[in-house]
Task: inverse folding
């Protein structure tokens, strides 16, 4: 099951405003396409979050999944990522997410995370003409110049370290270059955006996790965390933070989005919000629809006991009678422009969350869709310099700064902290 489903049941509708059907994305004219090609040849397009590893683990056996094929055409469970579409989308760098359900803790969480990292390793090894492992900002630049996709790892959820700094260090050694401090659940040391607050931010151990990540050179990812954690982590971090896949809360009051007061903290920190493509994050009407669907599913589960097939059929009947509103590339661009207006053009990026979501904006169905977004921003008057910052310049700067902070802390001893976690 895709991760957005877990959050939907936690949400209340904030708006029932209807959306008009989006107009199809305008074709990209040759001059605009040439301009996009030129920008993305000079600066790697770096996406902050792709969940193909989860899909390969849960919905497809890695051994039988041919990512050289057009995975959008697979009849049973089409995917959003394959090698040809990565090239068509001009992707230069990708943080491949390693995700596990937040219900797992302790040693089980560590084991499952290692299995996800192994899937990423095997994927990179299977497609060496397209993918190459990256560990540093310099690696990203070098690999992009060689015509391949620089592949990094992002750990999605603080429970994956089993509340052990030693595990955190080993994940860094295995290539993780960011960790999302929570997922949908509040952890033993940090509050989630979609769960009850326990610490009203970070616990003392959570603050020490941020410090250890700074010491390693691992980016602190604040997608999924509560606003209090956002503010406290920014204050605690010596290096830039990122939001690997979040959007603007001022445009849609979804708990996974970033409030304006947090956006205003980013210039001083150097952090980057990498805008998401999840329709429910982008449009209030879709957020309301998702909440209504979750409420209907909960009602059916109460009324129909011990018959999951009947519940599933009832949800499908409800969906047929209540189709979701649709959006397009313009709504994605709206969130990017809002982030750039409030935080600055130096503090915005792209984290589409492809293969971790059930649906996308119209026309943006896979990793080949990034040029549509750049064409829309060009129509809005964005300069080449600002487009290059959005594409990957800002993330490269943040990663280089994190590397410099780690170098300045080389004489700080490793933390030996750990917490007891539930079995």
Result:
């Amino acid at each position: 099951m895709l991760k957005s489903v877990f959050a939907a049941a936690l949400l209340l509708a904030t708006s029932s405003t209807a959306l008009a059907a989006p107009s199809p994305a305008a074709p990209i004219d040759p001059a605009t396409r040439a301009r996009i090609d030129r920008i993305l040849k000079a600066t790697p397009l770096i996406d902050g979050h792709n969940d193909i590893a989860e899909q390969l683990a849960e919905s497809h056996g890695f051994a039988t999944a041919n990512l050289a094929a057009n995975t959008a055409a697979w009849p049973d469970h089409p995917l959003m990522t394959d090698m040809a579409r990565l090239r068509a989308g001009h992707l230069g760098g990708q943080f491949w997410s390693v995700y596990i359900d937040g219900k797992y803790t302790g040693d089980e969480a560590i084991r499952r995370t290692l299995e996800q990292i192994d899937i990423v390793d095997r994927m990179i090894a299977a497609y060496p003409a397209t993918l190459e492992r990256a560990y540093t900002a310099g690696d990203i630049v070098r690999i992009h110049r060689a015509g391949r996709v620089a592949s990094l790892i992002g750990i999605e959820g603080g429970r994956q370290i089993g509340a052990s700094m030693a595990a955190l260090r080993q994940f860094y050694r295995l290539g993780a270059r960011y960790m999302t401090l929570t997922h949908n659940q509040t952890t033993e040391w940090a509050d989630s955006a979609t769960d009850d607050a326990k610490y009203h931010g970070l616990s003392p151990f959570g603050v020490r996790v941020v410090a250890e990540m700074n010491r390693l050179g691992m980016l602190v990812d604040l997608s999924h965390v509560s606003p209090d954690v956002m503010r406290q982590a920014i204050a605690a971090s010596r290096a830039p933070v990122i939001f690997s896949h979040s959007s603007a809360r001022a445009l849609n009051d979804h708990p996974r989005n970033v409030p304006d007061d947090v956006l205003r903290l980013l210039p001083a920190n150097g952090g980057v919000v990498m805008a998401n493509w999840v329709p429910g994050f982008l449009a209030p009407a879709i957020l309301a629809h998702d909440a209504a669907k979750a409420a209907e599913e909960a009602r059916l589960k109460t009324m129909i006991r011990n018959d999951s097939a009947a519940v599933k059929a009832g949800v499908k009947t409800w969906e047929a009678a209540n189709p979701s509103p649709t959006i397009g590339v313009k709504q994605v661009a709206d969130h990017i422009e809002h982030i750039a207006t409030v935080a600055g053009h130096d503090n915005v990026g792209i984290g589409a969350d492809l293969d971790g979501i059930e649906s996308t904006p119209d026309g943006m169905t896979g990793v080949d869709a990034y040029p549509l977004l750049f064409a829309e921003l060009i129509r809005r008057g964005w300069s080449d310099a600002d487009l290059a910052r959005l594409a990957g310049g800002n993330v490269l700067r943040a990663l280089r700064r994190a590397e410099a902070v780690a170098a300045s802390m080389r004489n700080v001893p490793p933390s030996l902290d750990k917490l007891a976690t539930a079995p």
About this structure: The chain has a mean pLDDT of 91.
